[in-house]
């Protein structure tokens, strides 16, 4: 079962994320920005969803710290404001998500990571991919 760590300082959003993720079959743990690193090390999630604006730190900076500890964790930055992934590449953000979000879009954002770990043509890892791509960077085949 895939594990998801939700880092958010808004209890309402935490509940929504938790319920939606459990419905989709994920093992979920909720944390705030103060306990996030401890939870990362104990829970060992495959995916982290961090809110952009929190009391003491922004989600992008927290994701950068998470990636320095566990670089293979898929990190999603969430916000109620529109976000562009291009603005957060320097923080190693893998995906951005505007909330509220439909169940279909939410599931799609998380499933993309699972679908394309390896190129179906050449079999090479696609770990360096940070966004939805059309062509494999290794062999050039259309995905």
Describe the overall structure.
The protein has a single domain (3-113), classed as Rossmann fold. Helix content is 31%, strand content 17%. The chain contains 4 helices and 5 strands. The protein is globular. It starts with a strand and ends in a 28-residue tail after the last helix. The relative contact order is 0.13. The mean pLDDT is 83. Residues 3-114 form the Response regulatory domain. This is Stage 0 sporulation protein A homolog.
Helical proportion?
25-40%
Strand neighbour order, sheet with most strands: 2-1-3-4-5
Strand content: 15-25%
CA radius of gyration is 15 Å
Helical stretch tally: 4
Q: Largest sheet at a glance?
A: 5 strands, parallel
Structural class: alpha/beta
Number of strands: 5
- Quaternary arrangement of the chains shown? single chain
Shape: globular
CATH C-level: Alpha Beta
CATH homologous group name:
Response regulator
SSE succession: EHEHEHEEH
């Amino acid at each position: 079962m895939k594990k998801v760590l939700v880092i958010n300082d808004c209890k309402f959003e935490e509940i929504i994320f938790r319920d939606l993720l459990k419905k989709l079959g994920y093992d979920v743990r909720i944390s705030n920005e103060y306990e996030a690193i401890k939870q990362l090390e104990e829970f060992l999630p495959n995916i982290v969803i961090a809110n952009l604006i929190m009391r003491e730190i922004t989600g992008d900076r927290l994701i950068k710290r998470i990636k320095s500890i566990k670089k293979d964790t898929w990190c999603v930055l969430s916000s109620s404001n529109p976000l562009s992934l291009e603005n957060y590449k320097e923080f190693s953000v893998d995906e951005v998500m505007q909330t509220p979000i439909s169940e279909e879009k939410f599931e799609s954002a998380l499933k993309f990571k699972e679908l394309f770990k390896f190129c179906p043509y050449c079999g090479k890892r696609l770990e360096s991919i940070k966004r939805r791509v059309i062509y494999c960077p290794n062999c050039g085949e259309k995905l």
